[in-house]
Amino acid sequence: MTGAPTLETIRQAPKALLHDHLDGGLRPATVLDIAGQVGYDGLPATDVDALAAWFHATSYRGSLERYLEPFSHTVAVMQTPEALHRVAFECVEDLAADSVVYAEVRFAPELHIARGLSFDEVVDAVLAGFADGEKACAADGRRITVRCLVTAMRHAALSREIAELAIRFRDKGVVGFDIAGAEAGYPPSRHLDAFEYMRNNNARFTIHAGEAFGLPSIHEAIAFCGADRLGHGVRIVDDVGVDDRGGFKLGRLASILRDKRIPLELCPSSNVHSGVVGSIAEHPFDLLARARFRVTVNTDNRLMSDTSMSREMHRLVEAFGYGWSDLERFTINAMKSAFIAFDERLAIIDEVIKPRFAVLIG
C-alpha cells in the first residue's frame, strides 16, 4: 500500500496502546443503559447522540481539572460487577475493531466501591471482562491482548493499598501501577511508599507527570519515584531547545529521560482538550520524536476526546506529514515499553506488528 496514510488505511494497521482510561472510554449507549438499570438519574442527556456530544463538548474546557469533571457520570455507572464486566468487555471489542493488538487499560479501583464492592471484587470484574472480550474477539479472528494497570488517585491516601492490589493480581492480568488526577499540589513524592513497595516487589509502574504541571513533576517522578514510564510527560519540552542549525539542546532532565529511554505516553487530542497545548499542530510530539525521545501515541480517554488510536495517528499524519515508517516506529516504541514480559513483547513485534506494517509500507 503506497501513499500517505489515510484514516481508513490507518485503521488496518496494528497498534499498541499504553495509556487508556477505562472510565474515559465507555460507549454513550452503555452509559445510558446502565444508568437506567441502576437508577442513576444524574446524566445531562437521555439521548445517545446528545450524551456523546455533551461529553465531547464538556471535556474541551481548557484545563485538566475541568476536563476531569465529566468522569463523575461514567464512574457513577461503574459500581456493580455486571457493569464493570460489561464496560471492560466492550472496551476490548472497541479496541480490537480499531486494530489494536496490545493495550494496557488503566482504572482506579477506589472510584468503584460506592455500592459496597471491595477492591478485589472490582479488579476481578474488570479482569473477567477483559478476558472474555479477548476470547470473543479471537473467535472473530481479531486477536488482541489487553492487560490492566491499577491507578491510585494522587489527591487521596490509598496509593499503598492500590500498589498492594497490583501485586496481588500481578499474575492474573494486572501488569502495573499508576497514579492519576490533578497534578498541581499533589506531587508524586507524596506516594513514595507505594512506589517503594512496587520496586521491592520487582514490579513496574508509570506516573502521570508533566501534563498540566511542568518539569518539577517530571523530575520527582523520575529522580525520587523511579517511574518506568511517564503518563503524558509532554512538558519535558520545556527542557528542550533548538539551536540555529536545527540541532537539539537538551537540559539535564531531558537528557536523562532520553538517555534512559523512559517512554512518554503522549496523548495529543487529550492535551488539546485539557488546555496543555492549543492544537495538534502545536503539540511537541513531533519535536520530541525528531529529538529521538521514546514517544508513543495514546488515546487517554476515547469517549471524552471523541478519539481512537486510528484518529490519533491520523491527526499526527495531517499535522506533521508522517508516513508508514513513522507510524511503525511509534507502534514499536509502545510495544517495547509495555509492561508484559520481554518474550511476549518481542513476539507481538516480530509476528504481528512488523509483518502487517510490511504489507502497508509495500
UniProtKB/TrEMBL annotation:
Q: Which cofactor does it need?
A: Zn(2+)
MF term (GO), any: zinc ion binding
Keywords in UniProt for this one? Hydrolase, Metal-binding, Nucleotide metabolism, Zinc
Residues binding Zn(2+) are H19, H21, H208, D300
What is this enzyme's catalytic activity, as reactions?
A: adenosine + H2O + H(+) = inosine + NH4(+); 2'-deoxyadenosine + H2O + H(+) = 2'-deoxyinosine + NH4(+)
Q: Name one GO biological process term.
A: adenosine catabolic process
What EC number(s) is this enzyme filed under? 3.5.4.4
Keyword Protease set for record: no
Q: What is the protein name for this chain?
A: Adenosine deaminase
